[in-house]
Amino acid sequence: MEAQTVLPGAEAPLAVLDREPPHNYEVEAGLLGAVLANNQALEKVSDFLEPEHFAEPAHARIYDAVCRLIERGQVADSVQLAHVFNDDEGLKEVGGSAYLAELQSSIVSIINAADYGRTIFDLYKRRELIELADEVANGAYDCSPGTWADQQIEEAEGKLFKLAEQGDVGKQVKSFDKVLSQSLKNAEAALKRDGSMVGISTGLIDLDKLLGGLAPSDLIVLAGRPGMGKTALATNIAFSAARDGASVAFFSLEMSSDQLATRMMSERAEIPSEKIRRGEISNKDFSKVVAASRDMESLRYFIDDTPALAVSSLRARARRLKRQHGIDLIVVDYIQLMRGGTGRRSQENRVQEVTEITMGLKAVAKELNVPVIALSQLSRQVENREDKRPQLADLRESGSIEQDADIVMFAYRPEYYEGKAEPEQKSGESDFDFQSRYEAWRVRMDHCRGIAKVIVGKSRHGPTGEVELAFTGEFTRFSNSTRRPADA
User: Fold this and answer.
1) For the whole model, what pTM was predicted?
2) For 230-242, what is each residue's pLDDT tens digit?
3) 212 with 67, same domain?
């Protein structure tokens, strides 16, 4: 490891400069001895310990050779290793084949191997922290054009997060047999759930059947025109997931945290949110609101209502929440209110900025291995068509959104458009003709009243299709439809 750099104008204490990077050669030798004496000891550490975690280069090469021998089904002992390292100058410096025999005679039981491995790994992380601290300090002194503090913070936090995640078995490169094993476990889990899903449930039966749940690492875009209820649908899904035990992070760039909380209380207490905000409720209703609040306060539900949030800032905050609270689901409301880069408006056009945002959100989903639901506005061209059903082409700045998303689904409420189309009597139109038109409209209105649709326009993992839901506007609540297929 390189020596610490003395920064211009900063005099580090001599004691700090003279410190050796943290290491323990005796512990490294002890672990290698345990593995050489009993190859089964490797099972205690192989999931998290890598050759580069050893401070002594010769120990790293020995550990790497041991792992390769055992993976091939061979016995790894001092005799076998002596052949492997016959011409290794680095090993000769520490004693050659005699040193291998000395290692094997080290008295460390298989029971202690895991503790020794964790100690080696902890010391490695400490060395990496020191090196990262040097990089951060030197980077902060760099004030040349094009180097922004926000970018340096993002890079440093990303490196720190990766360091924190090292040692997590699920984050390491996996061989194909391990990938197949995990896929088989997922299939078994789906079978035990009657084949319905493996991912996080949306709380909506038919939508879960179509999507298979919200899968980890997926970017799910939920789009719609204003008034379609996409925020309400996302809130309902997030609340259902939290109620089922998931930890949820909701990034609200449009609504404040108290507005979201009020919506959730309204849905839970079945009291219109407008009345709660205005105080137009009875003491009995207030008691219901209090009861709903107490019922929800134990949920692991975190709201960040920072406006105009940059994708880099969201990524950093999501990492912290993942480390601190084990986040299982992220919701972002909504893409068009986000900023690319470091939060300053990009010099390129908005399409390129949205591309950066959607790529960043997909990266968050994959890095944290959680589903990310990102809401998106649709263009006004929907309003200009006779058929108001949304399509993929209606996505604003659609290229990157459609490309980066694993799933694109649309919230659509025909009742909204039908309500705006209420007929008025035309000049010269007879009462009979008007009543006929009005009656036909009333039938259409009754048919779609309280009905919402979720249209899945893209699904990387399964079929597209349409799901019917019930919508209760006064409580901003989506729920399972009770209509039979023949009635729809």
Assistant:
1) 0.64
2) 999 999 999 999 9
3) no
